UniProtKB/TrEMBL annotation:
SUPFAM superfamilies in alphabetical order: Class I glutamine amidotransferase-like (SSF52317)
Name of the protein in question: Glutamine amidotransferase
InterPro entries tied to this protein: Class_I_gatase-like, DJ-1/PfpI, Prot/Nucl_acid_deglycase
Family: Belongs to the peptidase C56 family. HSP31-like subfamily.
GO cellular component, one term: cytoplasm
Record key words, sorted: Glutamine amidotransferase, Lyase, Stress response, Transferase
Domain DJ-1/PfpI, residue spans: 26-215
GO biological process, one term: methylglyoxal catabolic process to D-lactate via S-lactoyl-glutathione
Length: 220
């Protein structure tokens, strides 16, 4: 039977400085295409449902046609409140700065992640996607990331973007405050960390490796 994957994306479209943001297209597209190639059934959902904003910076340069074609799956996403954790074999959170604003406090997302993780199914997130993990507590009350090895967009990379003052918090620091063991590579280089059923990656350059580690975990 085909695996069923839930991808949860941000609806948040603007930073406090007025800069447009949203999902980073390659972090959605590379993972989505990897799941498609495995024949997986992918549900794309978001806190509000409907259309997903795309960070315009992620559309700059030579974006492959195959990647641009994945935008059609962002036009009418399902509402996260309509999702049932029992319907999925794993959950994947792409990044983009928008995730920092509408994923950390979403109680439905926290419930989905906790239920999927505690059902021994994998949870994966890349770049700013781990912002969706910061509010997740296990049934014993501990933060999901407590004592776990993780990787996420680093404070140094945020300084590189110049957007550190527009963020509600610095993601890597927040994860460490919650008891995670954050592992970082050099800025903008691939880094993937797997700790049991939790798979995380540092930046856009890590998406494909995170997706394939997630797929490997699903196959175990």
């Amino acid at each position: 039977m085909s695996k069923r994957i839930l991808m949860v994306l941000t609806n948040h479209s603007e930073l406090p400085n007025g800069k447009k943001t949203g999902v980073w297209l390659s972090e959605f597209g590379e993972a989505f295409l990897a799941f498609q190639k495995e024949g997986y059934d992918v549900t794309v959902a978001s806190p509000q449902g409907g259309e997903i904003p795309i960070d315009p910076t992620s559309l700059e340069g030579d974006v492959p046609e195959e990647m641009l074609a994945t935008k059609e799956h962002l036009q009418n996403t399902e509402h996260i409140n309509d999702q049932n954790p029992e319907d999925f074999d794993g959950i994947f959170l792409p990044g983009g700065h928008g995730t920092m604003f509408d994923l950390p406090d979403n109680t439905k997302l926290q419930e989905l992640i906790r239920s999927i993780y505690e059902a021994d199914k994998p949870v994966a997130a890349v770049c700013h996607g781990p912002a969706g993990l910061v509010g997740v507590k296990l049934s014993n009350g501990d933060p999901l990331v407590k004592g776990k090895k993780v990787s996420a967009f680093t404070d140094a990379e945020e300084q590189d973007t110049g957007l550190q003052d527009d963020m509600p918090f610095l993601l890597a620091s927040k994860l460490e405050e919650l008891g995670a063991h954050h592992e970082a590579a050099a800025n903008w280089s691939e880094k993937v960390v797997r700790d049991g059923l939790l798979i995380t990656g540092q930046n856009p350059q890590s998406t494909e490796a995170v997706a394939h580690a997630f797929i490997d975990t699903l196959k175990e």
